[in-house]
Amino acid sequence: MAQKLFSSFLILCIAVVGLAAPASAQRSATPTLLTNERIDWLAGSSEWINLSWTTAVELDDVEVRVTRKSRGLAVEYPNGEDFSSLMTDRTLSENEIDFTALKITTDAAVRGTKRALIEISWTESGKRQTASGWLRFTNKTYQGEDFAILTEDAAVSTAPLTPEANWVELAYKGLAPTTTDMKITASSPFEVYHPQETFTSLHHDQTLHAGETDVARVWFDPDLLKAGTHVLNVSITYTNTAGVEKKTSHDVKFVVSPDAVVAPIEG
């Protein structure tokens, strides 16, 4: 789970009801959110963030939810729940700092600032109390390369140890928030086997997230190969963070040898 901590402070605009006694008779039980209310965000991003909390009075049965949100913004909670609690447990002790995690996803097609109304609730004197405040996501447009090509050369054998050994891995690393629907097609002087018949996808899924590395695989029949140094032409179609379909290509140095060192791929 990727985590982000924000250093500046925000005290929530609150709506607290049903307190057991007047504020003058006890310390406030209202929690404070230690998170910047304005968060720089790249359009199309899907990341976990931390909301850090503190309190002057112990809070029990803490739950955090997004109760309202802008169009084009989606929220997920840990473990498939419909709320997020605290990292340690569901109690926020006096002067303790703990955090809740939310997964925020923004739709690249919907421009402008996004807002999410964060509500924290807790049990006090047998009644549920709540406080709430807005977070704002700038939803900036990503500028830069979509992914990096990590594979520059490959080797296969005319006499591999096993047929499985002649799989070639083409590795890519995500740079943009998301690169989706990746379809890779390879061509060479020899017939190329693609797992999806006409193309190959990434091993994990068809999406690269920023910082993620994944591989696509193609296979060569050793009976159809001839020794030598060749070029493997790789074409890629994909959808970028902004939702635009794109195409690119690159070449891989491709060595065929009777004694090429080709290790079987696990998994």
Walkthrough of the structure:
This protein is mainly β and 267 residues long. A five-stranded mixed beta sheet has the order 10-16-15-12-13, with no helix packed on it. Strands 1-3-6-5 form a four-stranded antiparallel beta sheet, with no helix packed on it. The chain has a four-stranded mixed beta sheet with strand order 2-8-7-4, with no helix packed on it. A hairpin with a 2-residue loop joins strand 7 and strand 8. The N terminus and C terminus are likely disordered.
* Mean pLDDT metric: 84
Q: Order of SSEs, N→C?
A: EEEEEEEEEEEEEEEE
Structural class: mainly beta
Largest sheet: 5 strands, mixed
Fraction of residues in H or I helices? under 10%
Strand line-up of the largest beta sheet? 10-16-15-12-13
Rounded radius of gyration (Å): 26 Å
Give the number of DSSP strands.
16
Number of helices: 0
Stretches where pLDDT is under 50 for at least 5 consecutive residues are 1-26, 262-267
Calculate the terminal CA-CA distance, rounded to whole Å: 23 Å
How would you sum up the global shape?
elongated
Q: How much strand? A: 35-45%
Question: Strands, helices and their partners?
Answer:
Blueprint: E1 32-33, E2 38-39, E3 46-54, E4 60-69, E5 73-76, E6 98-106, E7 114-124, E8 127-137, E9 147-149, E10 153-157, E11 167-174, E12 178-187, E13 208-209, E14 213-219, E15 228-239, E16 245-257
Parallel strand pairs: 2-8, 10-16
Antiparallel strand pairs: 1-3, 3-6, 4-7, 5-6, 7-8, 9-11, 11-14, 12-13, 12-15, 15-16
